[in-house]
Amino acid sequence: MPLISVIMPVHNAGNFLVQAIESIRSQTHTNFELVCIDDGSTDISPMILESYARLDKRIKVYTNGRNRGIGYSLNRGLRHAQGVYIARMDADDVSLPTRFTEQLALLKKNPSLVACGGQAAMIDPNGRVFAYKHFPTDPEMLYKMIMRMVPLQHPILMARAAVFKNYRYNESVSTAEDVDMLFYLLSKGSIGNTKTLIYQYRKTDLSNGYHSVKKTFMITFASRFSAILKYGYKPNFSGLFATFMQFTIVQLFPAKLVVRVFEMLRYDPPLWKRGIQTISTLGGLLTRTRVATA
What we know:
This protein is α/β, with parallel strands linked by helices. 46% of the residues lie in helices and 19% in strands. Strands 1, 2, 3, 4, 5, 6, 7, 8 and 9 form a nine-stranded mixed β-sheet that branches. The longest helix has 23 residues, at 271-293. The chain is globular.
């Protein structure tokens, strides 16, 4: 029996799928199964998955037949998962080699934690790191944080199967499916994050949540208030104020501007600092070119 079941939904991820799978196969902790759910891919993803299933017996492939959505795929993955712990993985991201080892150590050291994530680097389609997302590690802070922003990046999740397998994702939503899930986990115990960088999260124009910002936030907004009744979540005043402010901003301003503001506040270095760094780099290149041609 595998200690960890890794659930990875796949839909037309052919450009990045090999790198994602290899990052799992390269983990320092090797007692895992990789449960891949092909969600009606029309590119080379099915061929890549089948070739890896033949190559590595730890890789299991299930096919939806047609595109059923991420919620359906995750629920199917949960049904097939056999591990004591269940981890998530996106088909276009990269798990750094010690990810599983560090998350297992954190969960074993802290029995009150039902799940954990970790620190993430943001990468572009070419795999270049352009920013970082820092997550608090204190469970009390993470409990409060969910009313302002996601306290744990969904594809970095590792949870105890005894808790996680009892959850079912909402199959009617195509984005923000993780918000209700995190409230569910918080109703069962605490969540945490490793202090170290364990994941590379790829941002593309088609990244889930970036191409439908207003829809994503409306689902998030509804999930936050539903959780008060559904899971007994207890928000504080600052959390309620923050989510109403976000609602107002998302309604009033264009989606692209909302994304830029989010990145400015959430990424390290923030957007404005990266702009200055880019200008400085270009200025240095221009100066060296002038000197070389003088």
